[in-house]
Amino acid sequence: MKRQAKYISMLSRILVLILGAAALFPVVYMFVNAFDTPAAAGEPLSAGWGLSGFYEVFVRRPDYLIKFWNSLLLAGAIAAGQCALSSLAGYGFSKFEFPFREAVYFAVIVLMLMPYQVTLVSNYLITDALHLNNTCWAILLPGIFSPFGVFLMRQGFDATADEMREAAMLEGCPQLRLLIQIAVPVCKGPLAALILLGFADAWNMVEQPIVFLKETFRYPISVFLAQMDESRMHILCTCGILVLLPVLLLFLFSEEDLTNAALRR
Predict the structure, then answer these.
(1) How much is the mean pLDDT over the chain?
(2) For 15, left (φ over 0), alpha (ψ -120 to 50), or beta?
(3) How far apart are CA 179 and CA 245, in angstroms?
(4) How far apart are the first and last CA of the chain?
(5) How far apart are alpha carbons 83 and 10 in whole angstroms?
(6) Residues with Cβ within 8 Å of residue 241, at least 6 apart in sequence
(7) Could you give the maximum distance between any two Cα atoms of the chain, in Å?
(8) What is the pLDDT of residues 16-46, one digit of tens each?
């Protein structure tokens, strides 16, 4: 039995190493190509290693950084809006009784199961009627309404004890203050997960900017990566590194809250 357990442990480690190498290979490939210097016409495929891609992205062509900041502002605003609205809605569904509560919540779950492309046309018609197309509001307003965020925050609030809430209500604490100072800090895990997933989803969006925005200078960097060809691979991979950093830093920043929430479960 001990020998069998040893073999199973060894096979598990080998499988983890293989899966880890497969997951890291695209990242390593991106870093290698980012430092590659393209050759001139009539020369070999590569002229060696260099920083030409980084010079092009960070110094010579400011439009790459402009697209990066467009993405950062849009994704940050959408993630913040989702946290605010989802916390309010999730707290309401979890702690308040009102007519047709479960029916409305079921409708929210149905919306969560639908892909974004299903509501893209209706969102376009509404934002066009409000004269918001070709502005950031056409992307922000539909983006901050997250059925998944409502579902996630309700599950977090349902798992919290009602004793603290009842004690605060006996002391005359207003509901909004109770939500901000008591309920939300207790649900750090679901909130951190919502921030990370909402930011990553908005960070990678492509269809929404193409549909709602007309001027290309307003596009986020995700649209640029989707439209760029392989003839400028060093620029593409350098921008890929630039795109990777915010999501990676956000994950490292929220890792402790996510781990603690998983351990409590």
Answers:
(1) 82
(2) alpha
(3) 32
(4) 32
(5) 43
(6) 30, 31, 34
(7) 81
(8) 889 888 888 888 888 888 887 765 443 445 5
pLDDT of residue 42: 39
The length of the chain is 265
Q: To which residue do tokens 């190498």 refer? A: 21
46: its two tokens? 């590569």
Encoded tokens for 254:
């929220």
Dist CA 85 CA 16 (whole Å): 39
| Cα–Cα distance measured from residue 95 to residue 79, given in angstroms and rounded to the nearest whole number | 24
Residues 140-197 have pLDDT tens digits of: 988 898 899 999 999 888 877 777 777 777 777 777 788 888 888 888 888 888 998 9
> What values do phi and psi take at 108, rounded to 5?
-65, -40
Phi/psi for 7 (5° steps) reads: -65, -40
Tokens encoding 151: 């579902």
Instruction: Give the other-Cβ count within 10 Å of 260's Cβ.
Output: 13
DSSP 53: H
pTM score of the predicted model: 0.83
Residue 119 token pair: 């509501």
Contact 188, 260 (CB under 8 A): yes
CB 212 within 8 A of CB 139: yes
Contact assessment for residue 140 and residue 76, using Cβ atoms and an 8 Å cutoff: no
